[in-house]
Amino acid sequence: QVPLASKAEPADWAEAEFGGGALGDERLERRLQSIGRDFFAHPTMSIPQACGSKAKTKAVYRFFDHARVTLHSVLQGHYHATARRARQEKVILAVQDTTELNYSLHPKTELLGPICDKEGLIGMLVHDTMAYTVEGTALGLIDVQCWTRDPDVKRTEQERYELPIEQKESYKWLASWKAAVRLQEQCPESTVISMGDREADVYELLVEAQKEPKAKLLVRADQQRRLQTEHEAAEEAEGDLANVWDWMASRPVDGILPLELPRTPKRPARSARLEVRYAEVQLQAPKCKPQLGSVWVWVVTAVEVGGPPGEEPVEWKLITTLEVKTLAQALEVIEYYTQRFQIEVFHRTLKSGCKIEERQLGNAERLEGCLAIDMVVAWRIVHLTKLGREVPEVPCTVFFEEAQWKALVAFVTRDARVPDQPPTLREATRMMAMRLGGFLGRKGDGEPGTETIWKGLQRLDDITEMWVVLAEGRSWQSPIARELDRR
Fold first, then answer.
1. Is pLDDT at 54 greater than 80 in this prediction?
2. Are 103 and 56 in contact, with CB atoms under 8 Å apart?
3. Per residue, what are the HEC states of 104-129?
4. Which of 62-66, 171-175, 221-225, 446-450 has the lowest mean pLDDT?
5. Angle of helix 450-472 relative to helix 26-41, nearest 10 degrees?
6. How far apart are the C-alpha atoms of 319 and 336, rounded to whole Å?
7. Handedness of CA 360, 361, 363, 367 (dihedral sign)
8. pLDDT tens for residues 68-85?
9. Which residues contact 70 (CB under 8 A, 6 or more apart)?
């Protein structure tokens, strides 16, 4: 069980996210928190650059070599902190997805494996689950799975299909579902919704969600599921209408959803009209797995009509265990799913902002320990970015230390006489993004994104150190770092 209350108030964010005693050694705990601070202050830098000294760099490499330092042990404190944040939310979106970490440029790294069918691409695979609010604010990770493929094991598609789910990579979806159920148990006043893209359309996952209905499930459909023959609608259907999606398309439209589609590299921005349908159905088990039995689920479809010629229409087919008896509930399900892309922003931050694929640590086991820290740092960056938009008027001290915001204001205003009251979080993040991260802040630019935030954070640390030296005649460390040095 994850404790939802700590014995003492943590001194700073690093202690809040990495504390908890999972490493079983106070010195390792302190080192972990120190590394977290350094990585957050210099997210795009290499380990030696982030550490700032030869001695500190050696200590970091010794840390990743320690037998107690694993992906799981490093993340335990963060999992606890995520649960404490999540229990404040009425609805929690537990979004899961897989990303590949490519280390092909470091072929001497041991214990890696192929990440795709293309020859020579090696690395690790990571399947993580991030908890979000319905507005898309990242609350933290609740599960991370990491593995490498054995290059000597080669199976045909039929052999892979016949394996039990527990021996397939697709079991990752069920493992993440179990993490969502654990979170639901820790947040009894909330509704936890486990969410996945089309790859998550795994029948065993639907069965598991029916067995354990505490949490809810929402996935985008990929398979051509068939209606159970006992289902009254299927009895009336003929031919292809026994396919759930053909049957849904034959039903009357339940409502129209106007949608503004943003610009992408493949299409310009445009307005779209989507026909929405919903129904409760009984799905038939796959022919090769009749022992799994049928499952009752709700399905929601949203299909674009009247789109421009030559453009691929928007089409969402969603399967959920959430009750969908009204159009309002159907639209709510669609709105939930629109937040799924947030985890892709997180993965981009992990790779481009934290440079996880450029880490050189000799083998995959050391990389996993480093990955755990970088994932928490990446979460904190996307959390800060989103928080500045969702609650812009809170004081910036929720994220910035006193020396940091004063140094930032002095740098921007070119005046060492900083105000007594700190700026708001939105004001501070925009100052940092515009003056330190390259954000232009033009009328149509919206709010700063994760890239300008991580660039700004890196420069802010150096500016803070110099400001403290000039303004107060001392070197700068965070309060907890000074306390650790004292010990």
1. yes
2. no
3. CCCCCCECCEECCCCCCCEEEEEEEE
4. 446-450
5. 100
6. 12
7. negative
8. 999 999 999 999 999 999
9. 365, 368, 369, 372
CA Rg, the chain, in Å?
25
Q: Tens of pLDDT along 142-160?
A: 999 999 998 888 777 777 7
Q: Is 233 within 8 Å of 248 (Cβ atoms)?
A: no
271-296 average pLDDT score: 92
* 216 bridge partner residues: 193
Residue 4, Cβ neighbours under 10 Å: how many? Answer: 13
The span from the CA of 301 to the CA of 335, in Å, is: 12
Pairing, β 255-261 against β 216-220: unpaired
**What is the model's pTM?**
0.82
Amino acid type, 290: P
User: Phi and psi of 415, rounded to 5°?
Assistant: -140, 120
For residue 29, what are its two tokens? 């705990």
Chain-centre distance for alpha carbon 253: 34
Judging by beta carbons within 10 Å of its beta carbon (0-12, 13-18, 19+), is residue 219 exposed, middle or buried? buried
CA 230 to CA 232: how far, in whole Å? Answer: 6
Q: Is-contact 247 241, C-beta < 8 A? A: yes
Q: Strand pairing of 91-102 and 122-132?
A: antiparallel
- Pairing relation of β-strands 255-261 and 270-283? antiparallel
Phi, psi for residue 145 in degrees, rounded to 5: -120, 135
